[in-house]
Write a structure and sequence with these properties.
Layout (H helix, E strand, L loop, with lengths): L2 E4 L5 H12 L3 E6 L2 H11 L6 E6 L5 H15 L4 E4 L14 H29 L2 E6 L12 H21 L4 E6 L26 H7 L4 H6 L30 E2 L7 E2 L5 H6 L36
Parallel strand pairs: 1-2, 1-4, 2-3, 4-5, 5-6
Antiparallel strand pairs: 7-8
Helix pairs in contact: 3-4, 4-5
Bound molecules: nicotinamide-adenine-dinucleotide.
Nicotinamide-adenine-dinucleotide binds next to helix 1.
Length: 310
């Protein structure tokens, strides 16, 4: 059973991660800037009867506090197996609507919050020779999402940080992963630009996101199916007629020099003309050069099998 820390664990994706870990029997420290929320989650998880949860107040923008919590967990449990650097906020607005405060908050929480978590956890895990750091980025860390470029920029940075560290940590016993979700229906989407100057995107952006997004898969599936499968019809086992127009089926040909039993001609007509077999019953049967012992491809021109060459 693993010892894990989740940041931003009081809500949304962090709470779901903590729940999954406790459900499989892990011991989880649920941390969040919202201490009451973290405690509520931990209390509920302790009723599941599997793993264990505890809560800790943690602002990921404070490097000393992050190191303190991570070292404290290691000291208490003797190890630190899993770290989820997940806390984050949403920033929305056109570039000209955003202030430097938007940029600073995005960088401080979404990027430096992850930096602080990595900086605190990685040395512990290197010393253990084991551990797994999982950073939450976003689909906006993979594709250039407009109308919130501080968010996009920080999530791209988290992807870069994670992939670079992953390469560095490979072979040293420490795993590094980065999670890039698309839109997930959590309180984050209803709390854009928290505590920051307002833009038209501030507050609840769910409607804007819904308008700009394709319908979710389950809704599309619930609608009429364009390629619905029809009920089997009598005779439906037969293959449909797919021959292109103008290409009539060739009638069965009599076997050359044979019994007169019709056979379907498979050889290209030109090849058949050239084939020694088509020269009549007197022509010798020709085996392919590779099937004749001692024969190579480089047969002298004019030998019976040279017909196949251009
Ligand atoms: N919801 C989405 O659509 C979505 C999509 C892609 C990525 N993400 C990312 O997933 C992560 C979790 O988001 P969520 O959707 O669960 O949001 P959420 O708002 O439900 O949860 C985020 C949590 O982070 C906490 N937090 C905020 N600032 C903090 C700080 N300074 N220190 C510590 N905790 C802090 C909040 O209190 C909150 O509990 C974020 O990094 C977010 O960018 C979310």
């Amino acid at each position: 059973m693993s010892i894990a820390i989740v940041t931003g664990g009081a809500s949304g994706i962090g709470r779901a991660i903590a729940t999954s870990l406790v459900a499989r029997g892990d011991t989880v420290v649920v941390t969040d800037i919202d201490e009451a929320g973290a405690r509520k989650v931990a209390d509920r998880l302790n009723t599941l009867g599997r793993g264990k949860a505890s809560a800790a107040a943690l602002d990921v923008t404070d490097p000393g506090a992050v190191t303190g919590v991570y070292q404290g967990v290691r000291a208490e449990h003797g190890r630190l197996d899993l770290v989820f650097n997940n806390a984050g906020i949403a920033i929305g607005g056109l570039a000209e609507e955003l202030t430097l405060d938007h940029w600073d908050r995005a960088i401080d929480i979404n990027l430096k919050g992850v930096v602080h978590g990595v900086h605190a956890a990685y040395p512990i895990m290197l010393e253990q020779g084991a551990g797994h750091i999982v950073n939450t980025a976003s689909l906006a860390g993979l594709v250039p999402m407009p109308v919130g470029i501080p968010y996009t920029a920080t999530k791209h940075a988290v992807v870069g940080l994670s992939l670079g560290l992953r390469a560095e940590a490979a072979g040293r016993g420490v795993k590094v992963s980065v999670v890039c979700p698309s839109f997930v229906d959590t309180p984050l989407l209803a709390n854009v630009n928290p505590g920051l100057p307002e833009t038209p995107m501030s507050g609840d952006a769910k409607d804007d996101i819904a308008k700009a997004s394709p319908p979710p898969l389950h809704r599309r599936e619930a609608g009429p199916r364009r390629h619905a499968r029809r009920a089997p019809q009598p005779g439906a086992h037969r293959r449909p007629h797919t021959r292109p127009r103008g290409l009539a089926r060739r009638p069965p040909q009599p076997r050359p020099g044979g019994t007169g039993r019709p056979v379907r001609r498979r050889t290209h007509p030109r090849r058949q003309e050239l084939s020694p077999a088509s020269a009549g019953s007197a022509a010798p049967r020709v085996r392919s050069p590779r099937s004749r012992p001692g024969c190579s491809r480089a047969s002298p021109a004019g030998t019976p099998w040279s017909w196949a060459r251009p």
